[in-house]
Amino acid sequence: MSLVTADSRVTLHFELSLEDGQVVDSNFDQAPAQFVFGDGNLLPAFEEVLIGMQAGDEASFVMSPEKAFGAHNENNIQRIPRSQFSMDLEEGMVVSFADAANNELPGVIAEIGDQDVTVDFNHPLAGRSLTYRVRVVAVEEAS
Q: How many whole angstroms separate alpha carbon 131 and alpha carbon 138?
């Protein structure tokens, strides 16, 4: 039986849920996902907890914000002049911005004032502890 190592290709079902049990993402009712360790599809901490598991194993891990999507950072909240928006805005809406390197940067409209719009560029799950439930379907050596 193959154990998950840092050289594995892993096929798994996973679920992410919030502290209150609300499921954020799950593929338990779909085809399993596949990733190769270090390919960037999973956060490093989400990969590390799989080491030593084998096909058929199921486990749950509580991931602190630091191991998941980071702490909520007040510096990631920006006030932007309302005049820079040419669309109808609603609180909670996700708007795509370009950063200094012209990469796409999503921001959530947190508050709409008369002059300014407050935009939160934190990941929507920043500052949240998540429960990460996995069932390993298959483990292979990555070629």
A: 22
CB contact set of 50 (below 8 Å; sequence gap of 6+): 4, 10, 12, 134, 136
- Rounded to the nearest 5°, which phi and psi values hold at 48? -55, -40
Q: What residue has token string 């950063």?
A: 99
Contact 28, 78 (CB under 8 A): no
DSSP code per residue over 52-109: T-BTT-EEEEEE-TTTTT----GGGEEEEEGGG--S---TT-EEEEE-TTS-EEEEEE
% of the chain surpassing 70 pLDDT? 100
- Using DSSP bridges, classify how beta strands 77-81 and 33-36 pair: parallel, antiparallel or unpaired: unpaired
Contact status, residue 35 vs residue 42, Cβ threshold 8 Å: yes
Model confidence at 124: pLDDT above 90: no
- In sequence order, the 6+-apart residues with CB closer than 8 A to the CB of 75 are none
- Beta bridge partners, 90, equal none
pLDDT on residue 103: 87
